C-alpha cells in the first residue's frame, strides 16, 4: 500500500471525518462539480532517511491535506477532524507502517472566484514497510 492509499484509508475511517463526508477524500484535486465538504490530499515530497552509511527503510514525507467547505466553519471543522486523524498518529494502514505524523503548518483561506473555503494543513509523516 502506498502512502497515498494509507492516508486515504486513515481519513476515510476516522470517525469525525467519516460521519461528515464518508469517503469524499480525494488524491491531488477535487473532482469536477464536487459535493462539499470534502478533503483533497497529496504527497508533496518524500525523502529517504540515511544513518551510519546505511539506507534505512524509513522515509519522511510532507503530506498536504486541504479541507473544503461552503462556509468558513465547515472547512475549519473538517480541518480540525483531519488534525485529529493525523496529528501524532501511529499505526499500520495495509502494508504501510506510520511511525509518526506531526502537523507542520496550517492556513485558512477562501477561494475568491468560487466562494469555497479551504483549510490547508501540511503534515510530516514518517513511514516504513509493515
Percent of residues in helices: 25-40%
Envelope shape:
elongated
In total, how many beta strands? 6
Order of helices and strands: HHEEEHEEE
CATH topology (fold) name: STM4215-like
Strand composition percent: over 45%
Briefly summarize what is shown:
25% of the residues lie in helices and 51% in strands.
Written account of the structure:
The protein is α+β, with helices and mostly antiparallel strands and about 130 residues long. It has one domain (about 5-130): STM4215-like (2-Layer Sandwich). About 25% of the residues lie in helices and about 50% in strands. The protein is built from three helices and six strands; from the N terminus they run ααβββαβββ. It has a six-stranded mixed β-sheet with strand order 1-2-3-6-5-4. The longest helix is centred in the middle third of the chain and has 15 residues, at about 70-85. It is elongated, with a radius of gyration of 15 Å. The mean pLDDT is about 95.
Topology, please?
Elements (H helix, E strand, L loop, with lengths): L2 H11 L1 H7 L3 E3 L10 E14 L2 E16 L2 H15 L4 E3 L2 E16 L4 E14 L1
Parallel strand pairs: 1-2
Antiparallel strand pairs: 2-3, 3-6, 4-5, 5-6
Amino acid at each position: 500500500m502506498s502512502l497515498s492509499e494509507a492516508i486515504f484509508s486513515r481519513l476515510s475511517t476516522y470517525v469525525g471525518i467519516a460521519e461528515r463526508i464518508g469517503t469524499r477524500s480525494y488524491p491531488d484535486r477535487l473532482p469536477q462539480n464536487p459535493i462539499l465538504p470534502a478533503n483533497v490530499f497529496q504527497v508533496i515530497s518524500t525523502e529517504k532517511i540515511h544513518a551510519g552509511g546505511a539506507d534505512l527503510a524509513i522515509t519522511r514525507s510532507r503530506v498536504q491535506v486541504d479541507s473544503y467547505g461552503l462556509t468558513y466553519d465547515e472547512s475549519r471543522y473538517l480541518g480540525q477532524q483531519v488534525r485529529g486523524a493525523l496529528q501524532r498518529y501511529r499505526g499500520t494502514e495495509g502494508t504501510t507502517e506510520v511511525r509518526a505524523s506531526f502537523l507542520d503548518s496550517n492556513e485558512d483561506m477562501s477561494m475568491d472566484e468560487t466562494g469555497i473555503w479551504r483549510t490547508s494543513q501540511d503534515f510530516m509523516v514518517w513511514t516504513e514497510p509493515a
